[in-house]
# Entry
Amino acid sequence: MRAQQPAPIPRVGYVWIGVRDGTDVSNAGLRQGLADRGYDIGRNLILEERYAEGHADRIPTLIAELLALPVDVLVTVGTTISRAAQRATTTVPIVCVSGDPVETKLVASLSHPGGNITGMSLLSGDYSAKWLALLKEAAPQLHRVAVLQNPDNAATVVEVERMRQTAPALGHELTVFSWRPADIEATLAALTPASFDGFVVTDDALLETSLTRLIAVAEQQRLPALYGSSTATKLGGLMSYSADYFAMWRRAADYVDRILKGAHPADLPVEQATEVTLKINLKTAKALGLAIPQTLLATADEVIE
# Structure
């Protein structure tokens, strides 16, 4: 009698636009979520990780490489990578966390995704409307505001439109700058007190990989800035207002688990972020000469002294 062959170990592909340096909170959240569900990476699950090292043009090649292995599930961080995966396959299940998967046409609807993609929605198109008001509360003199976005990310296009709608009532003049690799140096050179009173960093994955550099520019130019990434304040950024990426990816691991057990993405409703957190770094505020109002501090979820 022929011995029964052991079941193949499931293989999950993961694509991130940054570098493999241990600072990727999405990866950390995914790994924790998989561990919560009994997966021991390397023993009963293989996690194939690919990093674009800041080069968005490498993403299609990395995705093709993973699909050729093949992988059982493809995990994509952010709208730009998820859209690239959507173009690459209509059959391999994709689990993503993105700003607004309906608005950016990753899924048909939150309740009925309808294709091979499901995951979590950050709702950043909604909470981005508060970014300018929060920054104004911290820095009341704010008038000329620079906004940094990746114009190739459909979700940040929505975020910028929300900010344009709220700017007039706050007395803000917005200037939007591109964070495409070819535009980065010119954008950084424009961020000076002679031209702007502060800036907002949208929650694009490519911008997330540049947080350390952006925070250094804010410090050097003494410009208050708000970041759409929850990790920014720990790195020295003044303020962040966003969903918690680690928590979102820890939850998204449940989608991976269910798909590996036979569920189809089309039948798994997209979940929305249930918590958006405000974080403030008081040490940075002091360095900028800002006295953060007690009313704002009282609403913060985390204050770094």
Remarks:
- Residues 11-122+244-274 form a domain with the Rossmann fold fold (CATH 3.40.50.2300).
- The CA atoms of residues 78 and 247 lie 15 Å apart.
- The chain has a mean pLDDT of 93.
